[in-house]
Write a structure and sequence with these properties.
Layout (H helix, E strand, L loop, with lengths): L2 H5 L5 H4 L7 H22 L1 H22 L10 H18 L4 H16 L5 H19 L5 H36 L3 H7 L1 E3 L4 E3 L5 E3 L28
Antiparallel strand pairs: 1-2, 2-3
Length: about 240
């Protein structure tokens, strides 16, 4: 996930970032959490509602990342979606009268880790947690006939999607404004973006470099090269 890339039209990153991870431990922990928390949530919500909560939680985490993370930040992982399932399980257990001490402890410990260890995207975790909790509260609170519940559930998913779209628009606007006014050298470098029309890379609208050339202000160890003909940095595809 690279905020300026999303701001320049690569909206798909809001979803695809959840499918990329930083090594075996990162993906291993997330998949273990999915294995433990996913089945009870799916059993309670049903397959399509569960899928909606999972994917929209991941997108919610990505949107909060774009909204609040520095332009030079980059992140990846399914943690936002996993935190969404944490919130979903809490809501379901609370409404069913089941003890939720374990899931509350899990959420608390993970939030402590999130805010205690550097280079962890708190925006992705908190955004996913808020989205999953809110959606499940709305889905689990519906009553009536099966047909009526299905209609309301569809309305909840559509409504959540619309709210996320609005949030995404505002987040992209924030990135654009910050890129235009940034005085930070590294943030300015990441605000630089490949223009397929002119085959140049402009930095905050006032500098340019030929495509294929690494901007001099970006450490070579962090950015290997510009991919010719595309708008992605090699090594950063979240």
């Amino acid at each position: 996930m690279i905020p300026p890339a999303v701001a320049h039209g690569e909206i798909y990153r809001l979803l695809t970032a959840a499918f990329l991870h930083y090594g075996i431990l990162h993906i291993g922990f997330n998949m273990w959490a999915l294995f433990v928390v996913g089945p009870p949530v799916e059993a309670a919500l049903g397959r399509w509602r569960y899928a909606a909560v999972y994917f929209l939680s991941g997108i919610g985490g990505s949107i909060l990342t774009v909204a609040f993370a520095a332009p030079a930040s980059q992140s990846a992982g399914a943690s936002g979606a996993i935190f969404g399932l944490f919130g979903a399980l809490y809501v379901l257990q609370r409404r069913s009268g089941i003890s939720n001490v374990a899931i509350l402890t899990t959420i608390g410990l993970n939030l402590v880790i999130t805010f205690s260890i550097p280079n962890i995207s708190w925006e992705g975790h908190v955004g996913g947690l808020i989205t999953g909790t809110a959606m499940t509260a709305a889905l689990a609170g519906t009553v009536g006939t099966p047909e009526g519940r299905t209609r309301r559930h569809v309305a909840v998913v559509v409504g959540a999607s619309v709210l996320l779209a609005i949030g995404g628009f505002l987040a992209v606007h924030r990135v654009g404004s910050e890129c235009a006014n940034t005085t930070d050298q590294l943030d300015g470098s990441y605000c630089a973006f490949y223009d397929p029309g002119s085959h140049t890379v402009s930095s905050s609208g006032n500098a340019s470099a030929r495509a294929g050339v690494v901007p001099s202000e970006v450490p070579y160890s962090r950015v290997t090269s510009w991919r010719d003909g595309s708008s992605e940095w090699s090594g950063f595809h979240a």
